[in-house]
Design brief:
The complex is a heterodimer. By secondary structure, chain A is an alpha/beta fold. Chain A has helices spanning about 15-25, 55-65, 70-80, 85-100, 110-135, 155-165, 205-220, 230-235, and strands spanning about 5-10, 30-35, 45-50, 140, 145-150, 170-175, 180-185, 190-195. In chain A, strands 4-5-6-7-8 form a 5-stranded mixed sheet, with helices on one face. In chain A, helix 1 (about 15-25) crosses helix 2 (about 55-65), helix 2 crosses helix 3 (about 70-80) and helix 3 runs antiparallel to helix 4 (about 85-100). Chain A starts with a strand and ends in a 14-residue tail after the last helix. The model of chain A has no long low-confidence stretch (mean pLDDT about 95). Chain B is of the alpha/beta class. Chain B folds into 2 domains: about 5-295, Aldolase class I (TIM Barrel, Alpha-Beta Barrel); about 310-395, no CATH class. The two termini of chain B are about 35 Å apart. The chains are: A alpha/beta, B alpha/beta.
Chain lengths: ~250, ~400
């Protein structure tokens, strides 16, 4: 019986890359790569706990870009953010095949490893795009703009650069309540950081905010054409799981 | 009148304009400004009618000197009238944008006093937004037919997109239902804007700093079902607008009974949504699939079959061109297979370089075979499950559930 050797990483993409790299170098016959947060010991097989080394991660990341392509390195990162259970193994296989075949690996669409990773990356980008529209900032008494979401995938780090470009003149917070973390942007420092923020955090809203919300609700109601009412279509584009963090109330 | 009431009236009055696009602008953020353009466009919500909301879509005023019978805002209609002040629109736009409700502003207007006066109001508003507030989000602005082109041209340097609505697809219908509007007055600004965009592209190649002019292109809207023109005539009009005026989009709007004129159809109680949907599908075929209007319809068949999408309808009438071998067919022909779009065609062309493709391979990388199956072979195999006969395939391709939805892949 072939024993599975498990590499445990710290949950970061860098940690994963380093674990995958080590697994490749050690040429174990059967490999699994698991986030330490969800790791449960198996009865058989060896374990290696990987301590993330930023310099090493940097080097590996450069090798991936040079020997496969920048495009593939981006795809791997996005697919990683999907947090799809077991995605690490497909990423590992993609990486191994990519280091043999080079940039052309991306075209191998009939290969299951490639297809599954592309599909995961696609889902992440789809949600990222959707949330760029559906996110709602609310002005608080202490003059920052707060928004919350519960996304399927870990997209905060993808959203932050978009809103930094767009809303650089206001302080804002995007709060992932599901993962109890947030990106916080400061207009003075022109920088955002990823930080933890408890899921039940609730800011106090400004008076002006409540007035704006009322105006937006009015607009939302009046822009719809009653004779064309179509709830099915509305739900198809805007799944109901996103509704609770909107300001407007679809009905 | 308070801002709340105004917004209620002037968004309600603007809702019949179907354009919702916020794409095509790559306007950059500035250090001290607010907003930027997203080339792909971003939808921020979907209204209860299923249409996307990406822009604050409002009229400057709904007070109108015209009496167009198909229009809710016609002078003879008894309804509450009001107008925004430019500052009010600017503040609403900025406040909504800061909260990420919108991609920007879609500002239109009824004709108050005269076309020049109306256009000046629109111009003043967008100028404030861009220059005073340093707003770099999306702006879609109406060009008012009959207004001095100087005003329109100046506005075009602030807007991302402009549009002039033709509304009625023939001169005859225009004379009957909107006698105060003149065909030439509508077409002239469209032609000027179209030429201006082409000129601007050339200028910007030579001088990088030449100011942009309507960078996201211009569009128009045609009302479907208020007048008797068949689909072929509407599609011909759209085709020539794309070719001659360099238009980015033609929107189609199913006629909603809002008039009381003898010349309007009385039998319509519901908007012809399925017909509108077929026209959008056909429009897509013109712009992205290399079809011509005359391939899709003819003098003997001048309206689309409502039970079938136009591409499938075309394919069953051209059975001699199929079935197509996916491992050999050129990209242009792959695009003509019902059920195969740009993404699938591209994937096929890329993947077949690596290995010969089977039906299973196509399925794996996401080609939907439901309709395509009748028109393709993989390595010589035909797997549709029924003989290759027009009448049988036609029966299979009929859509009897009358599903319709607004196409909005690229809008």
């Amino acid at each position: 019986m072939v024993q599975i050797h498990t590499y445990i990483y710290d949950g970061s993409f860098g940690g994963f890359l380093q674990a995958a790299w080590q697994a490749k170098e050690e040429q174990m016959e059967s490999v699994n790569i698991v986030n330490q947060e969800i790791y449960r010991p198996l009865l058989f097989g060896g374990i290696t706990k990987v301590n993330t080394n930023p310099q090493l991660v940097e080097d590996i990341s450069q090798i991936v870009k040079d020997n496969i392509s920048i495009s593939v390195s981006k795809i791997l990162y996005k697919a990683f953010l999907s947090e799809q259970p077991g995605i690490e193994l497909f990423l590992y296989n993609y990486l191994s095949k990519g280091l043999v075949k080079g940039a052309k690996i991306e075209e191998n669409l009939a290969d299951d490893d490639i297809r599954i990773v592309h599909a995961a990356a696609h889902k992440v980008m789809k949600e990222n795009h959707r949330v760029k529209g559906l996110l709602r900032f609310q002005e608080t008494k202490s003059k920052f703009y707060y928004s919350r979401l519960e996304p399927d995938h870990r997209i905060l780090v993808l959203l932050a650069p978009h809103f930094k470009r767009r809303l650089s003149q206001q302080n804002w917070i995007i709060h992932d309540k599901k993962r109890a973390e947030a990106v916080v942007y400061s207009r003075e420092q022109k920088k955002w950081i990823l930080t933890t923020l408890e899921a039940d955090f609730e800011p106090t809203l400004s008076d002006r905010e409540l007035k704006m919300q009322k105006l937006w609700k009015t607009f939302f109601k009046n822009i719809s054409i009653a004779e064309r009412r179509n709830k099915k279509l509305q739900k198809q584009y805007m799944p109901t799981r996103y509704w609770k963090n909107l300001i407007e109330t679809p009905q | 009148m308070n801002i709340h009431k105004k917004l209620a009236i002037l968004s309600d009055a603007a809702k019949y304009d179907v354009s919702c696009s916020s794409s095509g602008s790559s306007r950059k953020a500035t250090a001290d400004g607010i907003g930027n353009g997203a080339v792909s466009g971003i939808c921020h919500s979907w209204a209860d009618d299923g249409r996307c909301i990406s822009l604050l879509k409002i009229l400057f005023t709904n007070t109108c000197i015209y009496d167009c019978q198909y229009c809710i805002n016609r002078v003879s209609n008894d309804l509450a009238r009001t107008a925004f002040k430019p500052k009010e629109i600017v503040d609403l736009t900025i406040d909504f944008y800061r909260r990420n409700y919108i991609e920007g502003l879609f500002l239109s207007s009824a004709i108050h006093k005269n076309p020049d006066y109306t256009m000046e109001n629109l111009l003043q508003t967008v100028k404030l937004l861009r220059e005073k507030e340093k707003f770099n989000g999306y702006i879609h602005l109406k060009a008012i037919p009959g207004a001095d082109y100087k005003l329109i041209r100046e506005a075009g340097h602030y807007a991302d997109r402009m549009s002039v609505n033709i509304e009625l697809p023939s001169n005859k219908s225009l004379q009957k239902l909107a006698p105060q509007k003149k065909k030439d007055a509508i077409l002239a600004p469209m032609q000027n804007i179209g030429n201006g965009i082409i000129q601007n592209h050339a200028d910007r190649k030579k001088y990088k700093k030449a100011p942009k002019f309507v960078p996201a292109g211009h569009s128009t809207q045609l009302i479907v079902g208020a007048s008797p023109e068949p689909d072929l005539q509407i599609l011909h009009l759209a085709e020539s607008l794309y070719d001659r005026f360099n238009l980015k989009r033609v929107y189609y709007s199913a006629y909603m009974p809002v008039g009381n004129h003898g010349g309007l159809p009385t039998e319509i109680t519901k908007p012809p949504l399925l017909r509108e949907h077929r026209l959008y599908q056909a429009d897509w075929l013109l712009r992205f699939y290399g079809f011509k209007a005359d391939e899709l319809l003819s003098a003997t068949k001048s309206n689309f079959d409502l039970t079938m999408d136009p591409k499938a309808d075309w394919a069953v009438q051209n059975m001699n061109l199929f079935p197509l071998e996916v491992n050999k067919a050129d990209f242009r022909m792959l695009l003509r297979v019902p059920g195969i779009g740009h993404k699938s065609a591209r994937r096929i062309v890329i993947a077949r370089k690596q290995s010969k493709l089977s039906h299973l391979d196509l399925k794996k990388f996401g080609v939907v075979l439901k309709r395509a199956n009748y028109f393709i072979t993989c390595q010589g195999k035909y797997q549709a499950g029924i003989p290759y006969q027009e009448n049988l395939i036609r029966e299979k391709l009929k859509q009897t559930d009358h599903a319709y939805y607004q196409m909005k892949l690229f809008s």
